[in-house]
Specification:
The chain contains seven helices and five strands. It is α/β, with parallel strands linked by helices and about 210 residues long. The chain has one domain: Divalent-metal-dependent TIM barrel enzymes (TIM Barrel), CATH 3.20.20.
């Protein structure tokens, strides 16, 4: 199976940023398929019960590519989980209808939502570390952004170097509403679930 490629347009000095022509949704449709996304109950970013939906990546909950992530999300009071597509070792398991059904049933039983699908190979393009990332938020606007991730590597959310009040202002400026996924915000040596419980409280306070 050939890997989908995400191309990045080079930006010359003084040239206006041009958004990538291939989006995350395009790649997921090519791998899971539109019917698969619908079977999982995934819809475009929205916030029916409030402006923001707070979720977490399944690997951040210690449940990479496991339906148990949905139960953990309920325990923590999250709105949902971003689930892993799978790996080469399991042939991107989420493509299989029986796996999709298992996730859908687990989400229904836990009373939480599947907030998105993560395809690890997209992380090979390190946009999060690009110094232009902040300006891309306003240039892309809410219609081209499907979600945000709240990260504070090695620290609880709000206790590291990320300016979360500034992040909130940036989201307000573009009128974004939808999923914000908690990822990688557990201090070294600290209990995972206890740390995420604090992270959830932080996000509910600042992104309500």
């Amino acid at each position: 199976m050939s890997r989908p490629r995400v191309r990045r347009r080079a930006k010359r000095e003084g040239e206006k940023f041009a958004p990538p022509t291939v989006t995350r949704r395009d790649v997921l449709r090519a791998t899971v398929g539109l019917a698969g996304l619908q079977a999982l109950g995934i819809s475009p970013a929205s916030a029916e019960a409030g402006r923001f939906r707070i979720g977490a990546c399944d690997w951040s909950l210690g449940q990479r590519a496991r339906t148990g992530a949905l139960g953990v999300a309920r325990q923590l009071g999250l709105d949902g989980v971003q689930v892993s597509m799978g790996s080469v070792d399991n042939d991107l398991q989420l493509r299989r209808p029986e796996v999709q059904r298992a996730y859908r049933d687990a989400a229904a039983a836990a009373g939480v939502r599947i907030g998105g699908v993560a395809l690890d190979l997209l992380n090979q393009v390190p946009y999060k570390s690009d110094p232009r990332t902040e300006q891309w938020v306003s240039q892309l606007g809410r219609d081209r952004i499907c979600e945000f991730h709240a990260k504070e590597n090695g620290f609880l959310l709000g206790q590291g170097r990320i300016d979360f009040p500034g992040v909130r202002r940036a989201l307000d400026d573009i009128g974004y509403g939808g999923w914000i996924q908690i990822e990688g915000a557990v201090p070294k040596g600290q209990p995972l679930l206890e740390s995420h419980a604090q992270n959830v409280r932080f996000m509910r306070t600042h992104f309500s």
